[in-house]
Amino acid sequence: MTPDDQELATLLRWHAARAADEAPPPPAARLLLDLARPWWERWPARLRARADRLRAMPPAFGYAMTAAERQREGHPVPALVVADEASDGADVEAWARVTYLSVQAGRLRLRFRLEGARGTPGPAGDAFEATFVSDGAERPPLVARAVRSQSGEHRIDIELPDDLTDRWAGLKVTDRLPFHFVLHPATDAE
Amino acid sequence: MGYVWFWTFWHWSKEGWRAGTLLDGPVHGMAGHWDEWYRHEASPGERAAIAEAGRTPASQRRFVAWLARRWAADARWCGAHPPARVVLSQLAVLAPFDEWAAFARYRDRWHVPGIAAVVLGEASAGTADDVRTVEAICVPAESDAGTPPVVAQGFHVDPAELAAARDAVASLLGGRGTARLLALWVAAGQRPWPRPVAIALAAGWVAAAVLVAWLLVGPDPGGALPALAGALLALWGTLAATAVLTAAVVAAGAWRAGRRVRARVLRGQLRLRMEGGLTLIGGSAGLPIALNMLLAALRVRERGDAGAWLWRRIARALRAAAPAWAATGVVTADGRVHPVVLAPKLRAVLRHARVAHLLAPAQREASPRAVAQARLSTRPATPAAGAEVRLGFAAAMGALASHRARHLAHATLAAAGLRSRWQAATGALALVASALVLPALPDLRAIVRPPRAPEIVAPTSQAPHQLWLSLETRHPRDFVVTFESGFWSNRRVPVVGGDLAGRGHAAIPLARRRAVLPVDVTDGTLWVERRPRFLWRTFAPGARVGRYSLSYVSRLHD
C-alpha cells in the first residue's frame, strides 16, 4: 500500500467515525416495532371512532327520489379521508362509488371513484392506503393500496385471505358492500 | 379482422356490466373499462395487436376510421348504436391512444359543430372570441347510478339553466312546443313538395280567389254560373284537401317521431362542450344550448326509424347551417325566449368572420335596422401591437342577418330555413278564400246540384190584398215565386221560412192593374223559379221549375 493509499484510508476512517458520532442514536427496537404496527393497533380508539362515524354517514344519494326506471344504482361506500394521522387532524367525509369489483382466483380487483357530498368531486389524491373497515369486526380485514388510474378512478388489486375470498366471491357492484374505507394518502405512487 | 381485440374488449365490458362486475355501462364507463381491460385483462397477443395498430399514423387512422364507421354501425347497446365520437374522445386520453397522433383531434372536441353561443368574456366589449363553438352529443340511456341528464364539459353553468333548456327541447319534441312548432309550420313553413308543385298550388289558390271575387262582385255570369260554381268547388276542394292532408300527414308524422326522440332525450344523457373554460352567468346561452341539444337528439337515429319529414328536414338543415349561425337568449322550460343585453354581443358577431346569421330574442335591438346601425358603428377588431397584418378601419363588416324569435319553435324554424314568405302569403290567401267558400258551400251546392223543385201545397190563403202560398221544400232560400196576371200587378217574391215540416211560404201582395185587361180576378199564373245565390249576393233568377194557375192555388185553401 503506497503512502497515498494509507492517507486515503485514514481519511475515510476519520469520516466514518465522524458520521457515526453525528448520527442520531438508533431507535429502540420497541419504537421500530411500534412504527411498523398498523394505525388501528397504535390508535385503537380512532378505529372505533371512525367505524362509528362511517356507520353514521347518511346515504349521499337520494335513493327514494330515484326515477323508477333507474334500477341500477349501486351503493356508494362511505369513506373517510384522513388528513394527518400523526396529528389526528380532521377527517374528510366522502363516498367511494365502486365501479368495478371482481374476486377471482383469490384476488380482489376493485375500482372506485371518490365523490364528495351531493356528487361533487371528492378529495384528490394519487394514491391511498385503503383500510377496509367491517361492521362488528375488531380489526380491519384488509388493507390495500389504491392507486389512481389514468381514467381518474382509484384501483385496488390485492390477494385476499381464504376466508374473505369465500365471503366476497359472490359480491357485485350493485350490492351493498360489507365494508367501508378509511383512506390514508400514500406518500408515493406506483 | 385486425381489430378483434377491440370487439373482445367491448364484449368484456358488456358482459361485465350484465354480470354485475362493472357498475357503469359500456358507453358511459368506456374510459374506466378500457383502462382496466388494457392494463390488466388483455392478453399479450392482444397488446401486441394493439401496438401493431398504432405502429404508424396511417394504421392509427385506419383504426379510427374503422371504429367510427364499422364498429359504431355494428355495435349495439341499449337499442342504439354507441356514439363513435364519445367513444373516441374517451379513449383519446388513455393509454395507448394518448400517444397516437390520430386521436389528437378527439382529445378536446367531438367534431360535431353546432350553433355557436355568444358569451362575453370578463370585461369584454364584444370581440370575435366571444363567439364560442358549442358541441352537443346525445349518449344512449344506460341505467347508470347518479348519471346526470345533462353534462357540461369545458365550462360551468347553473344546472337549472341546463334543465330549462332540456325541458324546452323535450316540449318542442313532444309537448306544447310541438303544437306551436306545427302551427308555425302550417302558417308559414315550407312544404314537402317540389317548387313547381308549390307554384302550381299557389296559382290554384289565386285562381280560387279570383273566382270568389267574381262571384261576389263581378258581373252576373248568367248561364255560366253553374260552370263557375262547379269550377270553384272542384278547385277549392282539391286545394283544401291537399293542404289539409299534407298538414295532417306531416303533423302526425312529426308528432310520432318527435315523441320517440323525446323519449331518447329523457332517457339518455346530453353532453355539451364549449371552449373557453368559462363559468356562464346570466342564462343568455340558453337558446344556443337548447338548439344544440335538439340537434344532438335528432342526430341519434335508431335502425329502421326513417323519422318524419319535418324532423329530418330540420336536422339536415341545422347540421348544414350550424357553422354560420350564432344564437343568444334566455330560454325557459316551456320554450319561451327572453331578451338579453344585446349590443356587445352584436358587436362580437359582426366581428366574427364566419357567422352570417344571428338568432336573438324578439327585442328592438335585434331588428334589421338596429343591426344595420350596429354594423356601421362597429369597427373591426384592432390586432395586437406588433402584429404583421394591420387592418384598416375602413374594412367592411360581413353581412349579418338577424332572426328574432319569441319561442324555441320560432328559432328552430328560422335556423332550419323553413320559414317561407311565399308560403305565408299563399296560406293567407287560402285562408281568406276558404273563409268565404266554407259558409257558401250550401249555395254552391245548390247551384251545381239544384234541389228538387217545390210544389205549392195547402194551406194557401187569399185575402183582398195578399196571396199567401205554402211550398213543400227544405231549401226555401233557393227559390222565388213570380206572379204574372192580366188583372193583378206582376210580382216576384222570395220564398222564406222553412218549418219543421219542410215547408216554406211566399206572401204575394195583390194590387189591381191600372189598365185592366179583359180578364177576371182569377186570371194569373204563379211561376216557381230557382234563385242562385253566393253568400250575400243573389243572382238573376234561373230556370222556371213550377207553374201553377191562380185558380188552382185558390182551390188549395183549406
Overview of this structure, please?
The complex is a heterodimer of chains A (190) and B (558). With 190 residues, chain A is of the alpha+beta class. Chain A is built from 5 helices and 7 strands. In chain A, a hairpin with a 5-residue loop joins strand 5 and strand 6. Mean pLDDT of chain A is 81; it is low at 60-70. In chain B, 44% of the residues lie in helices and 16% in strands. By secondary structure, chain B is of the alpha+beta class. The model of chain B is unreliable at 387-396 (pLDDT under 50). In chain B, strands 2-1-6-9-10 form a 5-stranded mixed beta sheet, with helices on both faces. Chain B has a 4-stranded antiparallel beta sheet with strand order 11-12-16-15, with no helix packed on it. A 4-stranded antiparallel beta sheet of chain B has the order 14-13-17-20. Chain B has 17 helices and 20 strands. Chain A binds chain B through residues 61, 69-74, 97-102, 109, 111, 119, 149-153, 155, 157, 172-175, and chain B through 16, 19-24, 29, 31-36, 39-40, 93-95, 98, 143-146, 148, 267.
Label this structure with key terms.
heterodimer; A: 190 residues; alpha+beta; 7-stranded mixed barrel; 27% helix; elongated; B: 558 residues; 4-stranded antiparallel β-sheet; 17 helices; 20 strands; 16% strand
Global structural class of chain A? alpha+beta
Uncertain residue segments of chain B = 387-396
Spatial shape of chain A: elongated
Total number of beta strands of chain B: 20
Radius of gyration of chain B: 37 Å
Number of strands of chain A: 7
Taking the alpha carbons of the first and last residues of chain B, their distance comes to 104 Å
The two chains with the largest interface, and their residue counts, are: A-B, 27 and 26 residues
Low-confidence stretches of chain A: 60-70
Radius of gyration of chain A: 23 Å
